[in-house]
Amino acid sequence: MWLFIIAAGVIVLLLIGITAVSRHAFRQVTLWERSSLDSAYTTVEGFGLLTRAEFEGIPKEDVSIMSKDGHTLRGYYIERYPEGNKVIILVHGYTANHIISAQFISLFADEGFNVLLIDQRGHGRSEGTYASYGFHERDDLDAWVEFVRRRAGKDALIGLHGQSMGGGTVLMYAGISQYVKFIIADCPYSDMEELMKYQLKQLNHVPLFPFMGLLDRSLKKTAKFSMRQVKPIDEVKDKDIPLLLIHGNKDTFVPTQMSVDIHNQKRIGLSELLIIDDAIHANAYPTNKERYRDKVHQFLQQVFEKESTT
Questions:
Q1: 108: which of 77, 88, 158, 247 fits an S-S bond (Cβ 3.0–4.6 Å)?
Q2: Nearest to residue 87, comparing CAs of 75, 70, 69?
Q3: Which residues have a Cβ under 8 Å from the Cβ of 140 and sit 6 or more positions away?
Q4: Where are the domains positioned within the chain?
């Protein structure tokens, strides 16, 4: 009798522990604490790329759109070239906000682009709750592309730059893109399921069974998507859209190999890959600003040449 009671108690404790770990994993993946604007400014200023005073001094328009599922999404439109038709949409990563993306304003403005800084759903000044790693966000991005086409004209040369989850989002968007002319993905993941396996096992030392299944069940029930629906590598591999992938070789959060795999799997169209030595996750630009800018410039020249002949 006592052995039965003890065994039952152990099972109950195990179930409680599994439930607690599963809930923590779900929160970490979809609801982790978002960065404040102040902390984002601290990060970007620490990179030596942009100060709060410099950003606040940039002429910009506060803009907003409505997502398909009723969330107000907000951003800033920076129109340095009122007569120009080139627009870059900058897409930040998980827990970040538009200030992190602002480090890239001068990079693209120097190439003749007007800039749209956006806050992804559930981040910064945008409404929403759960991050879905590009599954729902690609529809939000599609709405922003339509905003740009209304603002800059239907012949606008629109490009996307995304970092980390933003990189995954812009690659997911490739699967539905009609009007975007190029994509730059900085430290993206190739497959969310594989990324979660890596992060659970290698970074958090959590066994994959039963937690992967429980995590995906929670994602389906609460956030309305499955990890298996987020495979950026599949969305871009058969698309002709020019692609530049950038990754740091010291990235242990999203393995560098994921960008290599995307590059190798892209079957048609231009695909370029830049690996930045000594760069950790989302730090390629501040680690080697010159190489990053040179590669983006060279890539954009190929895009412009392609557009001039079509």
A1: 88
A2: 75
A3: 67, 68, 71, 73, 120, 121
A4: 35-191+230-308
